[in-house]
Design goal:
Elements lengths: L2 E5 L2 E4 L4 E8 L7 E7 L6 E6 L5 E3 L7 E6 L4 E6 L8 E9 L2 E4 L3 E6 L1
Parallel strand pairs: 2-11
Antiparallel strand pairs: 1-3, 3-8, 4-5, 4-9, 5-6, 7-8, 9-10, 9-11
Length: about 120
């Protein structure tokens, strides 16, 4: 059974940084595309960043140049380095995996950015 566990959320002032991590189990991690989504109160869940099996990356326009997604296949983990955080980045952040044509989600971690 695939299991995704996020860590690293918290509260930070605008301009600060946070690093989110997601530990995966129950799958061959190197064969999974991974990503991060977020959902702010009253808004739909949206893509933040994705990284393919071949480590190609894709970012939402709103985070391009500020966030960096990376993967460590040896540790079965994916990370999201978030710099220059803005109050608009406040949301619950979810780890996401695409594996064997199925989608899997973590339980989410809260990120709060104060002005």
């Amino acid at each position: 059974q695939v299991h995704l566990v996020e860590s690293g959320g918290g509260s930070v002032q605008a301009g600060g940084s946070l690093r989110l991590s997601c530990a995966a189990s129950g799958m061959t991690f190197s064969l999974a595309a991974m990503g991060w989504f977020r959902q702010a109160p009253g808004k739909q869940r949206e893509l933040v960043a994705k990284i393919t099996v071949g480590s190609r990356t894709n970012y939402a326009d709103s985070v391009q140049g500020r966030f960096t997604i990376s993967r460590d296949n040896a540790k079965s983990s994916v990370s999201l380095q978030m710099n220059s955080l803005e109050p608009e980045d406040t949301a619950v952040y979810y780890c996401y995996a695409e594996y064997q044509r199925r989608a899997y989600w973590g339980q989410g971690t809260q990120v709060t950015v104060s002005s």
